[in-house]
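Subgroup meeting minutes
Present: P.N., E.W., G.H.
Scribe: E.W.

1. P.N. recapped why we're keeping a running log of single-chain structure predictions: easier to compare across weeks, and new members can see raw inputs and outputs side by side.
2. G.H. added today's entry (374 aa).
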Amino acid sequence: MALMLTFIIVVVLVVGALLVDIGYAFTSRRQMQNAADAAAVAGANVIAKHLWFPTTASPADTTALNRLGKTVETVLMDNGALTSGSDSQYSCTVLTSDFSVPVAYSDLGDCADEAAWASKAQHPIGVRVVANQVNAAFLAGAVGRDTIATKAVAAATVQPVRTGNGAFLVCASQTDGSGVNNATPILVGGKSAAAPYLINPAALPQDDGSGLLVEQAYTIYGSGVDQCGAASAMFRGRNLVSAGVDPTSVTLPRWFDANETSGSGTAELSTVAGQTGCDPTADDIWTTSCVVVAPVCTSSQVSGGKLQLFCVRLAAFRMIPDTDMADFGPDGAPHPSAPDEWNAVLLGGAVLTGGQGSVAEPTPGEPVVVKLVE
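Output recorded in log:
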């Protein structure tokens, strides 16, 4: 009887030890995966913001790109994947793809070896992080298991956004109306399915040769706004959309209902990561340098008595404060602005906080989103 009791106690202790360590292993695995996910997203954001869409006229923000590996390491440490009390290791590689279907990714090189990938010519599109951690077992050492090994793999890529919405509808031609409407069209192409509409490279910020940006200004709201060929007395650039509409459910290209009422419009829906988003309902939007995401449209029609604009691409614009308007305009000529007319410059791209991405390489000026792919 005593022998049987001893045996039962040993079995209970062993099973208990294993359950404790199995529970710890599951918890550690979840923590490691969360850390790897966060690190991969952070790394892909560095590539998106400082290589594909830098905020300066230089081809890439090399200082930020040089910190890619350190950025990934810091996120792993902050999320507990790299600790002093464990045997922790990680690897970080930059990914590229030929965007075939099904999509496959290949390594360009280590995140710390920016010479292997820090150019658009290498087509860097994302980051893969592999994190390994070995911790001492709590109780399972009694049955010959002294350590618990945990591994997590995550990859995130930069993807063009094919869904989104905004409170403004911006016509691509910008050739009718008044104000600062620009003769440089926002879009080019669109002649066929093989040649879709793209953001016009000539409309993007350009280096003037001295490292400064030359930006193109467009009227996005006001009585003189471009109407894509329509002749509405009420349309001033607003999109007629409820603020409760999920922008990821709005896929372009599509027809949008134009706002032809005197209402103040709706709140901005698609937002730019790390930027001050615009509130189009505010009375002083024209005095701020906030960023607005807007569908860019190519034509108009009247359907059911309502003005509609056909929009094919998303683009990001930075509002121009009224006091800065003298710096913009055809041939450098100043153009006065007023609260009734809001103007903005087309940005060279933007990283959005949400939206559905697509399996394709980003094109110049195109908003993107960073998504986990594994």
